[in-house]
Fold these 2 entries.
Entry 1:
Amino acid sequence: MITRLEIEAFICDWEKENDTFARLFSGVISVAGREGVIYEEARGYRNRGECLLNDVTTAFATASVGKLFTAVLVCQLIERGVLSLESRIVDILPYDLKAIDSEVTVYHLLTHSSGIADYLDFDSKEAEDAFFDAHPVNLWTSNEYYLPFFNTRSPVFALSAKSDYSNSNFILLGLIIETLAKQNYHTCIKQNILEPLQMTRTGFHATNNLPANTAIGYMWRKATDEFVGNHWHDGGDAGVGFHTAHFPTTGYTLTVASNIAIGLLKFNESFMSLLA
């Protein structure tokens, strides 16, 4: 079993090899074993404007890490025999999928090989601004709402021709989950992943109703040597959007570091037991 001293030595070596990144790092380092959390350390600010420091219970937005939850739910449905990787989405979803290839399967969505256009791809900054002016993100509260954003757009490449990241794939997976489970996506996540893993400080939250001690997202702007807010139009993958939307299957949950450390440990043990 790894010891606290070994973890501290590893972090010390990491700091020496990555001086700039280590200096800028703002968050929580959490290491867990079967007996629980072994090591935790908080660094930086959760709110730089008010000089509020992170602590080990600070909640962070996890961006597209939330896609892992979506993929796990899909695998659970496959395990139960109600879905397969070869299932065509047109045979499952009760929507007119218009420009989407009728041969697109669950496998294509999971591997980003569907060719379906990403609803967040724009030809210009002007087009992006016009889109968000027309569709204020406080309305982006369900997976169905996203469908018209990409449903009529031509594929960006032929089916299976390559793999290219598209958030639209996971919106469709979320709709598949809701259709087969006959439950809201967030409820499915809570009942099938968060509760079994006892991830009590992890969940989907509207940004006008965040839990206490939630961090604001920041990014480092090298050109001006300063931290800037990582606030964007959308509350999905790309960052922290401060608006009233709940976030669907593309994106983000709020979680604390210990939940991720222990949750991933349990997830890994379950996965390895399947391979044994």
Entry 2:
Amino acid sequence: MDNETLYQIYIYSFALIILLIIFSNIPNKIISIFKSIGNTIFEKQKNVYKILLASAFLVCLIKMPYWYYQLIRILGMVGFIYFTYLDSRDKFKVTPQLFVIAAIIINPIIKISFDKDSWQCIDIIFSILLFLSIIFEKRLITNRKIENDDYEPE
């Protein structure tokens, strides 16, 4: 077989795989697997991710290479958008808006430039925001459990 025939076989098999994926139930199964993994792992570990992100912001207070700050911009934006999604699903009132504002400030696509001292203040504010969101979320959950335990149906 020459190279052109192999290339055509490769193209046709690739097209066949794409058609099988599109017209089968495979994408829905894959999506449901990722949703179940996300619901069990990521939501239980949300506070761990918040603590890791807050500590990464605090590391920005010391002198680091430029790539670290860029990495923190990317991770921070993704993290804040993810926390916004989770908290808006849980019907929290304040934290989703604060997380959206934080994601806009730290986004790496359309950069908002500040001087070094301002960025250090922003890093501290982001860390405090993440730690306070953990504390208030735990208080809200315990208050909901207490309210549900006191409720006695007639």
